[in-house]
Prior knowledge:
Elements: H1 2-24, H2 28-33, E1 36-40, E2 48-49, E3 63-66, H3 67-78, E4 83-84, H4 87-93, E5 96-99, E6 101-117, E7 122-126, E8 131-136, E9 144-145, E10 150-155, H5 157-172, H6 187-200, H7 204-213, E11 220-223, E12 228-233, E13 240-241, E14 246-251, E15 255-262, H8 266-269, E16 275-279, E17 286-298, E18 305-312, E19 323-339, E20 344-346, E21 349-357, E22 360-365, E23 367-372, E24 375-380, E25 387-391, H9 393-410
Antiparallel strand pairs: 1-2, 1-3, 4-22, 5-25, 6-15, 6-19, 7-14, 8-10, 8-13, 9-12, 10-11, 12-14, 15-18, 16-17, 16-19, 17-18, 19-24, 20-21, 21-22, 23-24
Helix pairs in contact: 5-6
Amino acid sequence: MLRKTCYILPFIAASIFGFLLGQFRPPAKAQAARRVLYYVDPMHPAYKSDKPGIAPDCGMKLEPVYADDAARADLASANPNHIKIDSATQQLFGIRLTTVEKTSGTHSLRVLGRVAADETRIYRVNVGTDGFVKDTRDDAVGNRVRKDQHLATIYSPEFLAVSGGYLSANERTPSATSKDTPVASGAASVQARADRLRNLGMSDTQIQEMTVTRKLPEDIYVVSPADGFILARSISPGQRFEKHTEFYRIADLSHVWILADAFGKDAQSFRRGALVRVLVPDTGDSFRARVSDVLPEVDPATRAFKIRLEADNPAFALRPEMFVSVELPLSVSPALTVPADALLESGLTKRVFVECGEGCFEPREVETGWHLDDRVQILKGLRAGEKVVSAGTFLVDSESRLQIAAGRNAMGGGPTRRNDD
């Protein structure tokens, strides 16, 4: 009885195992749908084998190529320029599409600018003789000064000789009381001596004072020639100076220049007289400026054109060497445009990826026009209503190269070997 039981138990176990195996075996249709055509080396797809095994060159396990995958590969080979990317992969890569459309309106061309003093309003203060500085007052760099404000007191013997001649000529010509005296017999001599004093560095205010008091001045006052700010100072009390030494550099900052950098075609948009908007990034203040000129020089380092703008600056919010943003409004006629991110430039060619079906894209060369903000004009190569890749363009380009390489290998790009292991 025990011996019969030993024979029956294995028979029962085998029957149960066969039943379970039949229950979990995949349907015949599923097996046929995933029929293996051959096996390939995952690192070198050109290597094929009709049996599973190990790749002889890299030691990796061979991967099966199924019949349905081969059918899709055949479809792709019929259109070698088409790139197949399913919706799940598109979502994973962050690929987005944009419709090609006509756009128009006003766009802002933005360039970087730097504030500079108006060179026609910069005054260099000096004298035309030797001497020494007695004292200075309120003349620090950056101080705001008024016209005819005393900045320094100097002494020079040459002033005394010319001042004496001026007073003598005035005494002989009583009617010559100012530089505007009508021409008379002695007026020409008075005017000539007054001009010599101005040439030496005496101000009109001190010449008029000397005319009224009829006294020789021992000290000469160095005064500001205009309202403005002191940009530079090169004297100090007790210092000896030589003829034509620059004492001060004073700038009237109520009107300033803005030097902007523009590249290529952007420089052509800045026409003389055009109004622009100037923004100060740190404070958010904005100003209006006018294009004065496009300078003939080109920056040797950046190859940028220099655009000179002029702006009123009554509150002195614009300071020399301050960086600002310059916005030029441009009106453009309706034209086909795509986002700038949709464009791929390689050498002399420019191309975009156009959707040619569900999950299918094709590269297409285009000709472009103006670039404004984040839009690019398309002159040739696209039609209104087509959809192009506007995000993830480089990923689509990489996938295109991979699929082209795989297609070449699948079409016999390398020798086919059999693995008989």
